[in-house]
Amino acid sequence: MTTTITTGADATPRRTVRPTRPDRKQRWARRAPLLPALLFAIVVTQLPFLFTLYLSTQSWNALRPGSREFIGLANYATVLSDDRLRAALVNTVVLTASSVLVSVLLGLGLALLLDRRFPGRGIVRTLLITPFLVMPMAAALLWKHAIYNPSYGLINGIFGGNTDWVSQYPMVSVVAALVWQWTPFMMLIILAGLQGQSLETLEAARVDGAGPWQTFTRVTLPYLRPYLELGALLGSIYLVQTFDAVFTITQGGPGRATTNLPYEIYLTTFRKFEYGEAAAAGVVVVIGTILVATFALRLISSLFRMEDPR
Amino acid sequence: MTRTSNPARRSAGLTGAVWTVLAWLAGLLFFLPVLWMMLTGFKREVDAASNPPSWFFTPVLDGYRQVFDRDLTPYLLNSLMASLVSTLLVLVLATPAAYALSIRPVAKWRDVLFFFISTKMLPVVAALLPIYLLVQNLGMLDNVWTLIVLYTAMNLPIAVWMMRSFLLEVPTALIEAAAMDGANLLVTIRRILLPIIAPGLAATALICFIFSWNEFFLAVNLTATRAGTSPIFLVGFITSEGLFLARLCAAATIVSLPVVLAGWIAQKQLVRGLSMGAVK
């Protein structure tokens, strides 16, 4: 599609400096490879949100046919004054923050353990990444039945007792299963960071008389910071949308103890069929996400090499 | 932590041994649930539900046989179809786009890059209702192609970012030389770009495959019996009563196996993919 363009890459104008403004045809030739992906992304991911906006102004319960009418912002009033959404928001924050924090810390510890040569290092690494590769739905079922079950679960089987882990510690149960899956992810990113650390810096710290602990806190940890941030950021993007684990392990319960926003909106849509309210809740979540994402994007641009391409 | 990392130096003596043992213990501890899942899949249901847990037993294939008797195969095929086709589509869309954001960048490449990643941050749940209604109107509920389109959109941002990071590594001199030799774009792509970015394409494909294979939220809300993917097969086990643990573990092992094997084999590519190209 762009076979007419055969000039070398050096003719490429930089983003900031434009010696010659490429003519119309050339600019479109440049854009052509991008357009299919861009259009696809806009149509599939952005148009539904416009439709969500429209739906959020409707009073529409799918169980009462013919009940649909324009009610302005009333759904928003319902949703925002509703305790359930607030509880779900709190649960989402608790669930995301604790799983990200714990898995980053554990991932850091494991990465430090693996950042040295020892017999069977490759095998240990392989064992450690496996939890992340297990299908999340399968992992959730595994934890619910094979590990947490009070009568034949692995925990009570090994340590005795008959604690019903899921109903007594619902949030901890969900977080533990998520941490188990996401620690390997964090470990991989942090380990890649550790292995890029120059030995000379460490040697210099040692020569300067720094002990191992000092070297770790003063040299290694600051050096690892972007990797820790990257892991935490990407982990949050995925974990804030947690659905499988809640749906499977606790069904949001007991009561609403583990109902997070995705599960709450799912319930409003497909259990109560309050389409208008579900849409309004969706819009509120999107606005919240945009607020958080603005910071996240700023972080991303500092973490990823965002220099001008050639 | 009492010592810092040092990949070049093998720590000597007792401390070294202690850290090695600790690393092995951590690895085994994290692997234990997976091992338990695999073992339980080969138990008889009575052994699976025994307390205390039985580590030694006569392995049987009952669990596996029952899972396939309950028609797991169509679910696996749906998963395979949805994952493979969407991965292929993602690569076809993302590679040219990444090219237009790296080697011959469009004017606002930075904005475009951020637009892509922002679609990944928007919660899927907020789009579920309109997507559901639209799909319903089109008569596309319980259709694998619906999942294919949505999985393509889901993985597109990751693939664009990854492929861009791989394309940025192609030496400029190489492309310039090709241009000077009078090679046109297609020849340049085929002879120079493709061989260099082939590992990148493989890594991107792996990540897209993993995420589509494991996707549950869209699948559970938009499919049922005809187009259900493998995680949908597992839904039946959520509230099961009675003796079913061996069957559950057999099913969980089978549906997880493709991604576990792929991830084990392509460990090196995994890091780069998971960090969207940021970490090598």
Kindly describe this structure.
Chain A is mainly α and about 300 residues long. Chain A has a single domain, classed as MetI-like (MetI-like fold, Orthogonal Bundle). Helix content of chain A is about 70%, strand content about 0%. Chain A has helices at about 25-30, 35-55, 75-80, 85-115, 120-135, 135-145, 155-160, 165-170, 170-195, 200-205, 210-240, 245-250, 260-270, 275-305; strands at about 60, 70. Chain A has a two-stranded antiparallel sheet with strand order 1-2. In chain A, helix 5 crosses helix 9. The longest helix of chain A has about 30 residues, at about 85-115. Chain B has about 280 residues and is mostly helical. Chain B folds into 2 domains: about 15-65, no CATH class; about 70-275, Orthogonal Bundle (MetI-like fold). Chain B contains 13 helices and no strands. Chain B starts with 12 loop residues before the first helix and ends in a 6-residue tail after the last helix. Residues about 1-10 of chain B have low confidence and may be disordered. At the A-B interface, helix 1, helix 2, helix 4, helix 5 and helix 6 of A face helix 1, helix 4, helix 5, helix 6 and helix 7 of B. Chain A: One of its GO terms (cellular component) is plasma membrane. Chain A: It is found in: Cell membrane. Chain A: This is Sugar ABC transporter permease. Chain A: Keywords: Cell membrane, Membrane, Transmembrane, Transmembrane helix, Transport. Chain A: Belongs to the binding-protein-dependent transport system permease family. Chain B: One of its GO terms (cellular component) is plasma membrane.
